[in-house]
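Dissemination and training. As part of the outreach component of the grant, students in the summer workshop were shown how a complex can be specified as a set of sequence lines and then modelled as a single object. The example used during the hands-on session is reproduced here so that future cohorts can follow it. Participants entered these lines:
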Amino acid sequence: MWLRRVGAMALTLLVTSFLVFSSLYLAPGDPVAFLVKGRSPSPDQLAAIRHEYGFDKPFPVRYWDWLTGMLHGDFGQSYQLHASVASVIGSRLPSTLLLVGLSTVLIVVFGVGLGIFGALRKGKGVVVLVTVGAAVPSFTAAIVLRSVFGVRLGWFPTVGTGSGFGDELHHMVLPAVALTITFMALVTRVTRASMLEELGREHVEVVTSRGLSRSTVIRRHVLRNALGPVVTVSGLLISGLLVSTAIVESAFGMNGVGSLLVTSVDHMDFPVVQAIVLLVVATFVVVNTVVDLVYPLIDPRVRAA
Amino acid sequence: MNTLLDIKGLTVAMAGLGRPILDEVSLAVHDGEAVALVGESGSGKSVTARTALGLFPGGATVSGSVVVGGTEVVAAGPGDLRRVRTSVASMIFQDPRAGVNPVRRIGDFLTEPLRRIQGRSKAEATAQALELLGAVGMPDPPRHLRQFPHELSGGMLQRVMIAYALTADPRLLLCDEPTTALDVTTQAEIMAILGRLRRDRGLGILLITHDLDLAASVCDRVYVMYAGRIMEAAPSAALTSVPRHPYTRGLLGSAPPLTGPMPRLAPIPGAPLGLAEAVSGCPFAARCAHVVPGLCDATTPTLERHGDSQVACLRAAELIDETQGEGLR
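and obtained this result:
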């Protein structure tokens, strides 16, 4: 069971690594053109550059070199920054992880919380809020949040990453909110729908008719049973956070993995792009495997199947 | 005799419907008595039983009185409702598969009310749950406590539901078609368990069913319901030997006898009255073989005493002579 899952994970990563590697070489443009930066080198010099970076080797060999290099922790050299890809990403990873972590907390706490509130209240307020929230793209949210809470009210810094954990967290608040508004709205919607469905079930009427208090019924029989879809959707959204940081980090001038991805694409810095895309895929695979493993704990009926 | 459940003139109406869901329903269950409430789907029998626990349809207008163990539950506060639900009456539902929380273990399900309502310790609650599972005839109580609902058959789950209802140590057991979702041999076992519990614990039982023969064989008295109204109320023996309401007679005539040659069954023509249809006069008039135009569709009959029975039929007196003359059942 466990072995099969790990095997499936490894196979998924292998297949994606091939797709990632080959798709970038199908992309228009030539990294050599970037490396020579508009100068006009002689054909000999060009050949030398191609040789130095290994562009002259056949495709399968280059893929094999890249793959085996990664297995030894060598993700290649960044064309743009003249440093190893591992160190380039490694130095930016902590601030991005903090952003993703804070966003995860926001999604779970406010998304699920609002969903519960919306399911237990008769009014349509939460539904309206959710519909609006789901429709706001993160770059629009970023502009509005910066002008209102950053510039007008001055509560939060509008740019940069900050130094020291407290200051960093302070810098993260607006980006995290911009990043999560849509995701929170989706989680709220799923939580509310799932709760409402469970509220109408007969087993809820049974425990209510037995005289259990409403809070016990809600907590132990409605929310508990409604968790399945909430966990599945949250898992999908949270594993997608890493990609979405590209927009928000650029909008807030933060030096993270997301903004690195954007500049690397601009500069055809293939080794960096490949490594980040693979990281994103790995996150997806790992988070969804965790969700798969958690699911039988939420619904014991899955265990039998 | 102590009255456990006393429903008087109960009307439950909802905006947008053609007729009330319940219309002037009166019904009583005394200590240790078994009473059946019989009717077709949509007649309001389940709604009636649920009112005894203060479970009214959402948004309904309720008038009349429902007194359970001395407590009025119509417009009752949470405290009174809780008292009724936790110590006077509990309910067994139709489909045990839908009635037990599918993601919790049987042990959690049974000990939850014992611990949270009755305030037992974990060990006491577990011991009592084991005892109750034994009382409803479960073969291996310690193992069942660790099982999930999907690991048990429908009949076994219905026993779990009965055990759950008994955790309240109730005086009144409301049984809402407890055997409808089960196969025939299991039905007999469940009815036997309910009969035994009634004897051993002196429980009052309100049995909701659409099976008039079953109702008459296990209960002391039977109420027959149609379109939200009580049509006939009688002791079981009187109801089956001298059914007085044309609807009761129709129900008896449309079920096959258990012994003897199979006669041609006579179904009641037409379909039960929908909730959207307005009623004037007797709600059964449109399907009744004995209807008198101008009378039955103009005047609403109320329950009148005829012999041992109470009948809501404008022609009850004439029809009794007629049926006895013909020698029908």
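The first helix of chain A runs from residue 2 to 26. Students were then asked to discuss how this feature might be tested experimentally.
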